[in-house]
Amino acid sequence: MKTRPPTGAIRRVLAPLLVAGLAVQAGAVIASPPAQAQGWSTSVSVSPATPDTDTPAPAPVGHGGRGAFRDVVRTAWILDPARTELQTRRHSADARASAAGGWFAGGPVVSGSYMDDHFIGTNIGYTTYQGAVSVPLWLPGQGSATQHVAHEQASTLDEQLAVEHMALSIRVLDATAAVKIAADRVEAARALYADMQHLQGLITRAARVGEVANADMQQVRAATGNTQNALRLAQEEQANARATLESLCGNGVDAPDISFYDAPTLTLGRLSNTQDLIEQDPRVKAARGAVKVAEANLDLAKRSFMPNPEIGVDAIHEEQYQSPWDNRVGFHVSVPLPSDVRNVPIMTQARDQLGTATGQLEQARRMVRLELQRVRERVMAARSARATLADAATSLQRRADAEEKAWRVGEHALDVALRARQDAVRAQQAANVAQTEWHVAVLRLMIATGEDL
């Protein structure tokens, strides 16, 4: 059934809007849902598609080039509170290692006493003054074992710093993608809202003179309201995304361009030796360091088989009525004996710590192995999706052009052309999402394998 073709004025207005990608059906503007990068909470949505060539997309001012993401991560690392905490603990471990190199196991103990047996009101009797200084001694091998524990703790904290840096890089990647996506959505929503306002005014005037149906006017009016609401939601999303990025990198930091990360060939080649990548992963290194700390603590517990003995010097000063002063000097040794009441809890706690650390090391290896497999599959899937969805977008674009021509000559109604254009827009959005997911997957793979960004 043929419909009356639109007049020249309306045709000149509607055609550019259809070509621009107006996606309206039953008064609703269709927006693509955010995509989730597998294994990581990275929101990726509509962004301009880049061609499958080596030509990079235009970069933001001051944040273009392959090293831009690395620079933003470096800024976030300087401001990261976890880095300050771990570095403080690192210095504390060094201080403990230095203190354990002392001659004695603790500080000196000073004691003094005074004894007098004089009766009140008489000088007959004795008066004794006594003082002593003692220090605790290291048990055999206890001092070096204490130093070893502190050194292992410091080394483990170095690996924990690397783990925190890796996690921060992923958080910056998530925030960067969110900011870019939100900016794209705001720009698209603002342009669409302006076009819809213009279209609504023209169709309203045309409906008054009977050139278009009232149903088309109501449809465009509802779509204009929904487009305005979508613009406000996009602006809110943009503000929230930028606040998240600024909370990591500081105020005034722009999102870096990640479209340069599109050549994972070398990184995928490194995955052929998965075992080496697993052992070099910061999380596995940190878990291995925890095992070394537990082993050092167990060795220290074995060498602390009894309380530390003490050795000291005594000085005694005595006085008797009508007798000369009597001074004496000597030394004393205090050796507490071993006891299961003290030693068994210390040894069992050290063994429990070693068992826990060993189990966590194996869990870390399994987690890293699984993650490497996931990010590799994610890169392969993103590469395939990018090509497939780009072809689909091209095909649906041609279909939409054909439906538009049919509408112009009156063969199809306006809603048919709009639905065809809606399918084309949604396909293009899916292609844009796949393109962005491709860059995110490549960058995520580089982070997982420790490649220089």
Question: How does this model look, in words?
Answer:
This protein has 453 residues and is an alpha+beta fold. The protein has a single domain (8-449), classed as Outer membrane efflux proteins (OEP) (Up-down Bundle), CATH 1.20.1600.10. 63% of the residues lie in helices and 10% in strands. The strands form 3 sheets. It has a 4-stranded antiparallel sheet with strand order 5-6-7-8, with no helix packed on it. The chain has a two-stranded antiparallel sheet with strand order 1-2. 34% of the residues are buried. It is found in: Cell outer membrane. One of its GO terms (cellular component) is cell outer membrane.
SSE arrangement:
Elements: H1 8-20, E1 24-25, E2 28-29, E3 35-36, E4 43-44, H2 68-79, H3 81-99, E5 109-116, E6 126-136, H4 142-208, H5 214-249, H6 265-270, H7 274-280, H8 282-303, E7 310-320, E8 326-334, H9 340-408, H10 414-449
Antiparallel strand pairs: 1-2, 3-4, 5-6, 6-7, 7-8
Give the key terms.
single chain, 453 residues, alpha+beta, Outer membrane efflux proteins (OEP), four-stranded antiparallel beta sheet, two-stranded antiparallel ribbon, 10 helices, 8 strands, 10% strand, signal, transmembrane, porin activity
What's this model, at a glance?
One of its GO terms (cellular component) is cell outer membrane. This protein has helices at residues 8-20, 68-79, 81-99, 142-208, 214-249, 265-270, 274-280, 282-303, 340-408, 414-449, and strands at 24-25, 28-29, 35-36, 43-44, 109-116, 126-136, 310-320, 326-334. It is of the alpha+beta class and 453 residues long.
